[in-house]
Design brief:
Jelly Rolls, elongated, seven-stranded antiparallel sheet, mainly beta, ten-stranded antiparallel sheet, 5 helices
Length: 397
């Protein structure tokens, strides 16, 4: 019904504009086209002229990282991240027999990782260690609580780590490799293979992202390469892809200028914003509503993948941060120092239903980056830097 009314008013508005362009007395022409012979006008109001009251806040929300196509490892500023990988080895029969008979040896075992994202300066120190996991885990359900209960060996099973911008290589423990091969070759699945826990060096000062198994370019996925020899018989190479992976990001709320609100990926830092639009009359058609936020570059930190888009969704409760799932999210894009978004349907809902609980801002790529975006909030001392709302609406006069 609202869409129908909206179309009628748009049509009527178009007629009025056409008449205005042709006559100095638009109110005397076409009056019979209006219901009940009421007059309607197009009005423009903004948060400066209308002095709309506004408020904003920043908080940490929940975020499911299990579907992320990027795994993060390292620490910087207010965040830290570790990751888990599982390599399930599939062997041809020609190799299974020598393994089961114990007539083989591992000549070489290496792991290759391809960095695809960096948070902080690339020249910052970064190192990590690998640990055998003793407990079972599932990438579909693993989270912060799971990490706290994870059982793994303290011994680092990697060595000779070589770092480059586009490739990290390391030697993987041969004895553990042999155990995994025996486990794979055994029909009774003797032993276990719960994968590896990647932990950052405490002195690390950046976060590096690696492709997860859902990453679009399969050639960049982490792989384990094993060179096997059966003495006097053959040498063969087995390339093992990652079959399960997940990462967990921990951290605190960003600290900075109290005038700012923050949005950050990984630890799901989000911000709520509410602006009072009660000055707009009831039974109004919102033609266009645009909301702008000023970007604070000095307190933002963007990694090698940008975060020029923010999502916004309305709330049913500002205090408890409960989102409204009945309205589709809006998109805010950055041009220069401004993030701008069309929230016409939000304002229409607030005016029509006379219930306004504000909106929530989040990073569109919050599960694939740990980028931090700072925006000027409702408390900005400079009123021109505060969030700015402009509304064009059609109403009776």
């Amino acid at each position: 019904m609202l869409n129908k009314i909206f179309k009628i008013f748009l049509l009527t508005s178009g007629i009025i504009f056409l008449v205005i362009s042709c006559s100095d007395d638009p109110t005397s022409i076409g009056i019979d086209l209006l219901p009940n012979k009421d007059f309607i006008d197009i009005f423009t109001v903004n948060s400066d002229e209308g002095a709309f009251a506004q408020e904003s806040k920043t908080y940490t929300d929940s975020l499911d990282l299990t579907s992320s196509s990027v795994l993060h490892l390292g620490k910087h500023d207010n965040i830290q991240s570790t990751m888990l990988m599982k390599f399930f080895i599939f062997l041809p029969d020609s190799i299974k027999d020598p393994i089961n008979n114990g007539t083989f040896q591992v000549l070489n075992s290496t792991i290759e990782l391809v960095p695809i994202y960096t948070y902080a300066d690339k020249s910052n120190y970064f190192d990590f260690s690998l640990h055998e996991i003793n407990s079972s885990w599932s990438s579909l359900t693993f989270n912060k609580d799971s990490l706290a209960n994870l059982n793994y060996e303290n011994i680092d099973v990697s060595s000779n780590r070589i770092y480059a911008d586009n490739l990290i290589t390391l030697d993987f423990d041969k004895e553990l490799t042999q155990e995994w091969l025996k486990y794979s070759a055994s029909g009774e699945q003797v032993g276990n293979n719960n994968g590896l826990y990647f932990n950052f060096d405490p002195s690390s000062n950046k976060v590096v992202g690696f492709p997860a198994i859902s990453y679009e370019d399969g050639s960049k996925l982490t792989k384990l390469t094993i060179v096997i020899e059966v003495p006097g018989n053959f040498i063969d190479t087995v390339v093992v892809p990652v079959t399960s992976d997940v990462h967990v990001v921990l951290g605190d709320l960003p600290t900075g200028n109290p005038e700012n609100i923050f949005i950050q990926g990984g630890i799901a830092v989000r911000s709520n914003f509410m602006i009072d639009v009660s000055l707009i009359p009831d039974n109004t058609i919102i033609n266009k509503a645009t909301l702008n936020f000023s970007y604070d570059e000095t307190e933002s930190l963007i990694g090698s993948k940008t975060s020029d888009s923010l999502g916004a969704i309305t709330l049913t409760d500002y205090a408890s941060n409960t989102i409204n799932e009945t309205l589709q999210p809006a998109l805010f894009t950055r041009e220069g120092m401004i993030y701008s978004g069309d929230i016409t349907r939000f304002v229409q809902s607030w005016v029509s239903e006379q219930e306004n609980n504000g909106l929530q801002l989040f990073l569109v790529n919050e599960i694939t980056t740990v980028n931090k975006v700072a925006l000027k909030g409702a408390l900005a001392a400079d009123s021109s830097a505060r969030p700015y709302l402009e509304v064009i609406y059609t109403a009776k006069r």
